[in-house]
Amino acid sequence: MWTNSGDSHFIEPDDVWTARLPKALADLTPKAVKDPDGEWETVSVDGQTFRRKLPSSAAVKFLEESNRPQGVRDPVARLADLDREGVWAEVIFPSLGMWASTFRTPELLKACMRASNEYALTELVSVSDRYVVTGQISTLRVQDAVEEVEWLAENGFRAVFLPTAPHPSAPDWNRDDWEPLWTALERAGIVAAFHIGTDPIDITGPGLGHVYRGPGGAVMNYTETTFSGQRAAMKMVGSGALDRHPDLRVLIAEGGASWVPFLGDRLREGYRQHHMAVRPKLSRDPKEILMTQVYASFQHDETAVPTMEALGYRNVMFGSDYPHMEGTYGHTQKTLEGLLADARPETAQRITQGTFRELFPHVPPAPASTDAIEG
Ligand code: MN
Asked: What is the pLDDT of residue 374?
């Protein structure tokens, strides 16, 4: 069974920025020097210097395992992984973008995002029309974001990666400052693709996704990453951004699907019961806006099928989360067989193919059977 994926990852080469930036800017990109004992490192980025404790060997091993297949760094080898897993087309998120929140010089961030996009265009997009590569934009300065969206549109990008919260020194997503960005994305037909767990990080802190310690820490930290995607969707609806831009579509990747009807209930209730305090007024029901303009990808969630069949949320798509350990790499077919065993044929078709193609109609349809591409 072929499926499309709304959630996949690629690791750019280490020199993707330094190879493309003028020296003065390249010198400001992140550099890390490990202490001889290997426990701490000194990181310099954009004129700031931080000391940070290196992750434990268990965490390093986890990360290495998580990025094991060659296709995560090699765009051509990647196609063989996709064929083996039965993944036809996929939304591909970047990896180096996590540094974006540590930059403070707008010109530097803008140049790095352009360098990443030029790399993506020449090395990834060009390899296969099965790759829907997310462009990257500055979230530090709105005008820079808008200009980059225009460049992305001219170069055929159909999705842009947005972190679940913008740069720490920029206004939040619900602020009107971002209105020109929503206008630009809607006009270009570019999907706003938020990936869960991408709130800006404090690189001096204990590390990505380490919010809790103590009993339950691991499962709580994993679960915690989910909520940032829900918050981003909430802001896009509550602020009226999606109401003002009815053709703008949002993807929340990796966060499951059943939260959407739930969040819609809460938005609707808040809008109705607190109407005297609600600004701005919306022209449509907030739950309807959420359920129609927001799309969600899931990997293992067993409630995804009933969310579509019983709760009426149709914008559900599978996402493999290739190659991460939370994802289905190595067992994609088995996972889908289990999840879709009792699904109606039209539900299975929409989750694996239709929802994705509604967002990205330019992507060629999957072959009718595996024989079609092997033959
Ligand atoms: Mn993912």
From this structure: 43
Separation of alpha carbons 51 and 34, rounded Å: 10
- Tell me the CA–centroid distance for residue 7 and ligand 1, in Å: 5
Question: Where does the chain have alpha helices with state H?
Answer: 23-26, 57-66, 75-85, 106-119, 142-154, 179-188, 217-238, 241-244, 259-273, 286-293, 304-309, 332-340, 345-349, 355-359, 370-374
CA distance 306 to 310: 5
In CATH, the architecture of 3-10+75-362 is Alpha-Beta Barrel (3.20)
Residue 242 near residue 248 (C-beta atoms within 8 A): yes
Domain residues of the chain, as ranges? 3-10+75-362
Q: Which DSSP string corresponds to 267-332?
A: HHHHHHHTTTT--S--SS-HHHHHHHHEEEEESS-TTHHHHHHTT----EEE---BTSTTS-TT-H
Please name which of 114, 14, 4 lies closest in space to residue 73, comparing C-alpha atoms.
Answer: 14
Q: d(Cα 253, Cα 250) in Å, to the nearest integer?
A: 10
Distance from the alpha carbon of residue 94 to the mean position of ligand 1, in angstroms: 10
Q: What's the 80 CA to ligand 1 centre distance in angstroms?
A: 19
In DSSP terms, 40 is beta-bridged to: 53
Q: What is the pTM of this model?
A: 0.95
Q: What would the mean pLDDT of 63-68 be, rounded to a whole number?
A: 75
